[in-house]
Amino acid sequence: MDVGTVNAPRLNKVTSLTFILATGPEQSDLPRIVALARAAQRRRVATTLFAMHRGVLSLASDDERTTALHHANCDLIGCATSADQFGVDLAALGAAVGSQDDHARLVAGATRVLAFT
Amino acid sequence: MTKPPSHIAVIVGEVDADRQDDALRAALGLTLRGARVHVAITNAATPLGAQGLRARATLEMFNHTVTEGGAIGDALLAGTIEVWGPVRAALESPPTDLVDRRRIHLLRPGHAVPTRPRDALVLHLPDALHDDLADQLLDVVLASPTNPIVW
User: Fold this and answer.
1) What is the pTM of this model?
2) Which alpha helices (H) appear in A72-99, and where do they start and end?
3) B40-52 confidence digits (pLDDT tens)
4) What is the ipTM of this complex?
5) Which residues does chain B have within 8 Å of residue A53's beta carbon, measured at their own beta carbons?
6) Least CB-CB distance to B84: which of A45, A113, A117?
7) Which residues 44-73 of B are in CB contact (within 8 Å) with A?
8) Option in B34, B35, B138 nearest A43 (CB)
9) Measured distance CA(B119)–CA(A20) in Å, rounded
């Protein structure tokens, strides 16, 4: 990655970062999100992850990284409809049972959104 | 003063019917807090299922925009853009003078950026994002004035 060539000023006004995860384990987006959530924690930026579609499967299939998100103080919310569709127990993952209203709320309210969809 | 509604785009790439339908469901969900939503279905070859058709009809009933085919319209002008699935074909983008050149494009392995200003910043995401790279990448994202697009 070429980010080393970018001299980005650090802006403190970004206080919240929302991740949207809709891809399954085959896309390897969950490890990327974990790394970014840890980086956000180091910068005291609050993070929330909303998982839907196969994103709930990504969480369910990787205990280690789901736990890592909790350790990074990343709030986890899963789409109840997707969890039902894929047979995922969100509560067992420590994720709140949510809806598309959470999706809309988080996208509207975060100062930055990264959508891994 | 009333806050203007946010503009959110959902770009649907080459995905199966189930995923396409869920992208439409997500788009409908994104309207629930007052956002103006633009759905751009780039691969019209995959027909919408019953759920997708219902979501599309509801979006259009409330004057949200749903387009099909290569013309992406003003979707790239949205403040937040969700890209569902890889977009293979080159897309017809809005006039470059309207597109925010400061927007960062994050490119996953095996994906492409189908349309962007020539001088836009494209960062290639590796399979493994180590802490140092994650720190650098997040600094760039936080410093950016707009939400990045993850392709």
Assistant:
1) 0.91
2) 80-86
3) 998 878 889 999 9
4) 0.91
5) 19, 22, 26
6) A117
7) none
8) B138
9) 27
